[in-house]
Amino acid sequence: MPRHPARRAHVLALIGAGLLIVTFGTMGIELGNEMARHGNLDRQSTAAGNYLRGLHHATSDARICHYAWMAEHKPQDGSCYVQAIQQLSDARRGFESFRVVQLREGGGRVEPLQSVWQQLETISAWPHSPEGTPAGGAQLLADLDQNLSILSRASTLDQADRVANMLRNTSWQRRLALLGILTGVFSLVSAGWVLDRSSLAAARAEASSRDLALRLRATLDSLSLGVAVFGADGHLWHWNEQLAVALGLEKSFFKPGLSYNDLSAVLVVDGVPLLEPLEHVETSLAKGQPAPPVVVECKGINGADLELCRTLFFAPDGAAERRGFVLTAADITMRLRSERALGEAQKLRALGQFTAGIAHDFKNLLTVILGNLELAAEHDLPDQVEQRQEYLSAATHAGHRSEALTSQLLSFMRRQQTGVPDCFDLANLFSLLDGLLARVIGPRIVVECADVSGVWPVRADPAQLESAVLNLAINARDAMPSGGRLRIAARNVTFSVNADLMSLPVEEGRNMRVVSDPTPLPAGDWVRLDVIDSGSGMTREVLDHLFEPFFTTKREGAGTGLGMAMVLAFSQQVKGRVVVATGSGSGTEVSLWLPKAAALSAAQVLQPAVLPKINKPAPSQTLQVLVVEDDAAIRDIVVTILSMAGHRVLEAGDGEQAFDVAAAAEGPLDLLVTDIQLPGPLDGLTLSRVLVERYPELAVVYMSGDLTADSKLPEGGVANARLLAKPFRRDGLMEVVTAALSARTGV
């Protein structure tokens, strides 16, 4: 981490003060040592000098007194000579110390010192009387005096050198001390300068931080969502003004150090707190690593739609005291309104596509119905009864298919499964398709239906299977605008183990495949129904979106994209699979994998629908029935069928009229057959409840085009009522009426 300038100033100040202390301390120590050393040297040099002067004085006295005694022989001269000789003899005791000092002070004194010592030894052997001076004694004294003079001059020069050296050492010490003082002062001045610059930088940084804080505050306050920053201990650090507005609280409620638990305690709607417990946040912070934000949408205490988001933050250096979490609150009321509006627009668009698709499919069915009815009308001669019956049967079958298509569409929109799969023989389906597809597909496409006499019966709803095959055939027709060949075949397949349909061998170059369910097909007996065209095939992009509702490659208005979605829904209902295989220039093969039905007798296997013969049933009992239906054509059919059954039938077009008719009727009502959706204030459910209160034994049948075979009794309906889905046939109406009457009587 980079050092702060103030810390550098502190370091420089410490260095400067240390240098000054060391310099002055060293100077004091060195000065004391030098003075002690020079004092000791001076003491030794002074003692050696006194010794040398004593020798030199004694030698001079001996020579002078000897020459004086030789000239006059005075006793005092003789005594002077003897005393001087005695001093020279006694000087031998201090000579060793003198010699050490002389040798330490400088070199070149060995020979004079040796001569002085020998001469002193010689003199010490002389008799202590003037007469006893040996021959050559005067010369010896002269030589001794000369050697002492040499030593005296050398000592004087050494002392001068020592003084000069001391002066030189003192000058060096002064320069060193001056350098230390200057360095210390410079360090202190530098420290002061750095401190001044650091204080200026600190002032600038403080101003910049204050400016940044103000800008951040202005930025936070300008946000459209509320922001609150909490520390790891759950106390509030910062917040913006929008937070109080979004949460529906007073601005004075938020203060520095506000506890997160206190905020959570006031944000409670219907007894449920809007914020997560602080313990959860602390657990996430304790892990020390970033975690995904926690987002929740809820109603605020002010009724606004809120999006609350909690995120964690950590300091770059990992310091625990600089970690915490941020809580944001956004008012998403307008966004949800926009999303709802967009959803409604998308629903309307899908509804338009869906309506166009229904119209397209029903036009095909109406073409078959009207065409066959026209052909039947033209064959009205007695010998053409059989052919007319064939056309009427085809028209009736197309009507049944339109009924199945309606139920299938309702089931698809509600995401429900309709009906219970039946046992169905594919031979009957193929015999029907062989003639029907030629009229639907057109003459440019050759339709081939393979022999399926040995194929097992399948467990599927016949009408839905016919619709699925018809949808696949129409898709194949659109894939061959210039004509081609359409082949429909079926075969038995047995898997001993679960089979992955995507791993089956490639057939006829169709190497691109997609399956409706990627899970393996369960082991067992299956019937594979193939619809194969000779078109150009599909691209990978089309194949990837094939089962999506409203996905189509046809031009606008030519298709809805619901065909394959309905085929997929059919396969899911029978717990089968749809496999689509295609290839460039190899056409497309759609395979329906259908479960084999359990073995049934021939009477149990469903046969294709034929036109029923209408026989007037023998009335078992005469009942008074009220029929309420706003559609006059449907009302006439119901009234006619019930009248043919021998019942006394009353009719009404809406709920109010039905109430009046019931009030004017003679005797009690036995049965009410009413549409659920009636115009006016009285719908079918309300009307039935009112009439049941008046006639407790009344049986009720509800009719509606929104009902399917597995629909449940609508909320608000009368207990034991029965449901009749539109469109219906005479047999279906009579079965429901019988069931309603039986439920009334408890049979």
Automatic annotation (TrEMBL):
Reactions catalysed: ATP + protein L-histidine = ADP + protein N-phospho-L-histidine
EC number(s) recorded for this UniProt protein: 2.7.13.3
Keyword Kinase tagged: yes
Domain Histidine kinase: start-end pairs: 357-598
Transmembrane segments: 12-31, 176-195
All residue ranges annotated as the Response regulatory domain in the record: 624-741
Pfam families xref list: HATPase_c, HisKA, PAS_7, Response_reg
Ranges in coiled-coil conformation: none
Signal peptide interval: none
4-aspartylphosphate PTM sites in chain numbering: 675
InterPro entries: CheY-like_superfamily, HATPase_C_sf, HATPase_dom, His_kinase_dom, HisK_dim/P_dom, HisK_dim/P_sf, PAS-like_dom_sf, Sig_transdc_His_kin-like_C
Gene3D superfamilies (UniProt xref): 1.10.287.130, 3.40.50.2300, Histidine kinase-like ATPase, C-terminal domain (3.30.565.10), PAS domain (3.30.450.20)
Keywords associated with the record: Kinase, Membrane, Phosphoprotein, Transferase, Transmembrane, Transmembrane helix
Catalytic class of the enzyme: transferase
Record has Membrane as a keyword: yes
UniProt GO molecular function: phosphorelay sensor kinase activity
Designated name of the protein: histidine kinase
Organism: Acetobacter pasteurianus NBRC 3278
Lineage: Bacteria, Pseudomonadati, Pseudomonadota, Alphaproteobacteria, Acetobacterales
